[in-house]
Amino acid sequence: MTTNTWHRGTATEITPGMSVSEQLETAGLNWRVEKTPAYYRTADGMKESPVFAAYRDDTGAFFDIYSKREPWQNADIVEAFNRFCDQADLPMTHLGALEEGRMLYAAAQLPEMIAPAQSLNDLTQGYLLLEDSHANGHGLRVSIYANRLVCLNGMKIPVRVGTQIIAHLGEFNSDRVERILAAARTTLIQEKQQMTELADVSISKAEAAMQLIKAFGDPQLPVDEQPRMVKTALRLFDGGGKGSTELSAYNTAYGLLQSVTEYFNHHAVKRGSVAEQFHSVLSGSRANNMQKFQRQVVGCYLR
After folding, report:
1. How far apart are CA 106 and CA 92, in angstroms?
2. 3-state secondary structure of 30
3. Tens digits of residue pLDDT in 85-115
4. Nearest 5°: CA angle at 123, between 148 and 82?
5. Phi/psi-derived region of residue 45, left when phi > 0, alpha when psi is between -120 and 50, beta in every other case
């Protein structure tokens, strides 16, 4: 599986004019979710449970236990993705799946590139990311995926309407979609402003080490005995990272943040498949660590 794309080969490019069935076929999502009664053993033998096991019909991959829920088929999810993108006037560019098909996602490339004012070559492409899942407790979620082009460092940025993160999206009315788009644009503007301000903050290698140890290390240990993550990110900050010599990143708080995102995108211990690693970048521990560190540096330097 290729790793030289922002989606790590987990998605397929969607061309304008494709029908939903063609999109499903192209992305390898032309399979169904079925359900079967769950059974349990008693002293009197096997009994049928009132709940059902939901599974993928072509591979048999187990998804979740359904009670009264009926399967939400891939065609339904992709149709919802399309309706959102149509109302947002943003053509869908990618469609893919993770966790053996348990989670589906689509991306629409946003027209705005974002970059720190100090280095207009240090571009970050924004995507509007739509996610839905065959597991319980998930509805259609909307966020932004920011992909720094020089190194394919990606990080998911939550989008909020008011004080609420957008999740479990209900009806697709035009007012609701417009509010989400406005919130996404505001999020992009804020992200660019933060990039520019962090790129104005000069920090030394010692200060970078202090920030990394605070987030990921042990303050009782010297730098050369810190965890691998701290030492690797410090090396990336100190000229070893892709794009670390850009004016925006060289010895700056922005460059320190990018050293952490590069670590979790490309240098963290590789557990599981490439798809599993990308899922962690989107919604797992890697995403949590990157977002947490961004909050730390923003809170420290942009008060």
Report:
1. 7
2. coil
3. 988 899 999 999 999 999 999 999 998 888 8
4. 70
5. left
Give dist(CA 228, CA 290) in Å, integer. Answer: 16
Q: Structure tokens of 65?
A: 């236990």
Q: What is the pTM of this model?
A: 0.89
Question: Is residue 166 a contact partner of residue 184, using CB atoms and an 8 Å limit?
Answer: no
Tell me the pLDDT tens digit for each residue of 248-282.
999 999 999 999 999 999 999 988 999 999 999 99
Can you list the alpha helix ranges (DSSP code H) found in the chain? Answer: 20-27, 74-88, 174-199, 205-216, 228-235, 253-262, 274-283, 285-301
Token couple for 108: 């629409």
Q: What distance in Å separates the CA atoms of residue 125 and residue 279, rounded to the nearest whole number?
A: 19
Q: What is the C-alpha separation between 282 and 264, in angstroms, rounded?
A: 11
Instruction: Dig out the tokens for 161 from the structure.
Output: 């309407």
CA neighbor of 289 nearest in space, from 219, 237, 230: 230
Q: What whole-number distance in Å separates Cα of residue 147 and Cα of residue 113?
A: 10
